[in-house]
Amino acid sequence: MNQFVLIGAFSAMTRLSAKALRLYDELDLLRPAKVDEFNGYRYYALSQAGRAESIRRLRALDMPIEEIKQVLAASPEDVAGLLAAHRQRLQAERDRHDHMLAAITRLINGEERLMHYEINLETLPAQTVAAVRRHTDLAGIGATVAESFGTLVGFLTQAGRHPAGAPFLVFPDVIDADNDGHIEVCIPIESPVAAPSPAAATSPVQVSRLDAVTAAVTTHQGRHDEIASAYHALTTWITEHGHEIAGPPRETYLNDPAVTAEADLLTQVAWPIR
Prior knowledge:
The protein has three domains: 4-73, Orthogonal Bundle (Multidrug-efflux Transporter Regulator, Chain: A, Domain 2), CATH 1.10.1660.10; 75-113; 120-272, Regulatory factor, effector binding domain (Multidrug-efflux Transporter 1 Regulator Bmrr, Chain A, Alpha-Beta Barrel).
């Protein structure tokens, strides 16, 4: 017969905090074996310790909760493939960090100068967009953007529409190593999609009209993980010219990373001002 322990004892056994255990309960990742209906106490079965240890180790490897659910629910033959995919993402992240550290070393040693940014004042025209709003952190933003663009392309294909401009992201929140937040992934279209199907009614895609805005605009050439200097240049220019920020920045991707060398990637960064 299974033995049960309270959440505090289970936390000590598994080295997962009580706060984390409550979160995993809410997210349906690791639910208590039973909850006392009178006092709300959570009880865990000792047999759940193995699942808890798997979760702890996967979280230590920065695997997102939804992917951990997939791993724990997968058949033994599928687990290897899921872990291999995460291993590739970890390696890509390590390569990115290595590249950034090398670039910073060159900059500190005077071997490399900050990119010069030409900044212009432009009016971004009003446009209709199909958009997906997502919450993400810095580690997961690449996968989130890719998944969102896939969702948008599927939506437009089903609606018989084609993009009317380059795709872009809007950043309502600051997302960095210490903060997660929302992004809006957008594809311009010619006009609203009429008479949505029942499937479209439940889709995460929203079609809306963006107003025209005045913005400080520049173009970053090169790797996206070095784009922070473009934001620094923009905020400095905005302050020096007596303007105020009037909305979230957006990044428009001017060429296709699938067929363009990293050094030649072009990203337009626009910051609405007044």
